[in-house]
Write a structure and sequence with these properties.
Number of helices: 14
Mean pLDDT: 95
CATH superfamily of the largest domain: Hypothetical protein, domain 2
CATH topology of the largest domain: Endonuclease III, domain 1
Structural class: alpha+beta
Number of domains: 2
Largest sheet: 3 strands, mixed
CATH architecture of the largest domain: Orthogonal Bundle
Helix content: 40-55%
Distance between the termini: 72 Å
Radius of gyration: 24 Å
Low-confidence stretches: none
Number of strands: 6
Length: 354
DNA sequence: CAACCGTGGTG
DNA sequence: TCACCAAGGTT
């Protein structure tokens, strides 16, 4: 274990670097803001942390502004219809986050007087808030001591200490080190500093060690094998699933329905399709018609790749769907359509050709 | 605890 | 093209 004096030196080097070169992000309190006595809005911080889970800053940023504009307080978000929340989340992915986001807003609003807890366990108990997010909120929103360990911190620390244990087994070890390193006097700035270090200097593929405030003591840097960390177990190949999507039109509208509340794309809208499985199992169309072949769309999910054959037909007057809605052709953005379904819908025959 | 859960960018 | 990855959580 590192000696206390060394820990102090590391803290100082990191915070000096952060004070000098730390990024400015919309949801982030800068060091000078804290010194001026400004405090963060826990709601805005929480919103950013949920959106940033497994999501890049450029992708999440416009969503964060949009949500705050629509729902400036946690009470506003809690009062919103869930379908509105799902619609605004569409395109961000991991839709359980949106369901949990709404559930969390309702819980905070109705049971906690609209205030986010400033302690670890109550935060952890809220839907969508796990170990990382609870600690991140403690640090960023309340400037309280925390052990903030995200993918950035894992990479920085496994490289720095050349931790041989493979992820995710190394997590407890990393959490302990992160907690010891964190600056008790500036928890909020420190947490953001070490994440910034991973995001901008100690990057996955081409770390800029020359610019790193920790290069002087980094074991991976000394050995020149920092790219071998963090150690990871090899992952399994992604299987391919096939299906057929039934793109049904009726007078400038498209048939959509809501997916089941849980599981993949839970609660989002979809173009109805066959089951997704082995190739060659087309399934039955919803009605007999001269279905037009509109080609195949491909979409990569986390654990499988989907190939959907798109078939299109105009529904006759005699057919009505048992469920779902007729969405206006030119107002599809008003519905909670995930990206994969936008791909399907985009195969629609242009109105000029109908 | 391993599997499940999206999307878009990048080398 | 393709593998990898990004401020993880839930079951």
């Amino acid at each position: 274990m590192a000696a206390p004096t060394k820990i102090t030196a590391l803290r100082q080097a990191l915070l000096d670097w952060y004070d000098r070169e730390g990024r400015t992000l919309p949801w982030r309190l800068r060091p000078e803001d804290r010194r001026a006595g400004r405090v963060a809005d826990p709601y805005a911080v929480w919103l950013s942390e949920i959106m940033l889970q497994q999501t890049t800053v450029p992708h999440a940023t416009p969503y964060w502004f949009r949500f705050l504009e629509l729902w400036p307080t946690v009470g506003d978000l809690a009062a919103a219809p869930r379908e509105d929340v799902m619609r605004e989340w569409a395109g961000l992915g991991y839709y359980a986050r949106a369901r949990n986001l709404h559930a969390c807003a309702i819980e905070v609003s109705q049971q906690l007087n609209g205030r986010f807890p400033a302690e670890l366990q109550p935060l952890r108990a809220l839907p969508g808030i796990g170990e990382y997010t609870a600690n991140a909120i403690l640090a960023a929103a309340f400037d309280k001591p925390a052990s903030v360990v995200d993918g950035n911190v894992e990479r920085v620390l496994t490289r720095f200490y050349r931790i041989e244990t493979a992820m995710p087994k190394a997590k407890p070890e990393i959490r302990k080190l992160a907690g010891e390193l964190a600056d008790p006097d500036r928890p909020g700035d420190y947490a953001q500093a070490i994440m910034d270090l991973g995001a901008t200097i100690c990057t996955p593929r081409s770390p800029d060690c020359e610019a790193c405030p920790w290069a002087f003591a980094c074991q991976g840097r000394a050995r020149g094998d920092m790219l071998n960390y963090p150690k990871k177990l090899k992952k399994i190949a992604r299987p391919i699933r096939h299906g057929t999507a039934w793109l049904v039109r009726r007078q400038g509208r498209v048939w959509l329905r809501q997916r089941a509340d849980t599981g993949l794309l839970g609660g989002m809208m979809e173009v109805p399709s066959s089951e997704w499985g082995e190739a060659g199992v087309a399934g039955d169309p919803p009605f007999e018609a001269a279905w037009e072949d509109r080609g195949e769309i491909r979409h990569v999910f986390t654990h499988f790749e989907l190939r959907l054959s798109v078939r299109e037909a105009e529904a006759g007057p005699g057919w009505e769907p048992r469920e779902g809605i007729w969405a206006e052709d030119n107002a599809l953005q008003d519905h909670a359509l995930p990206s994969v379904m936008h791909k399907v819908v985009s195969r629609r025959k242009p109105a000029s050709e109908r």
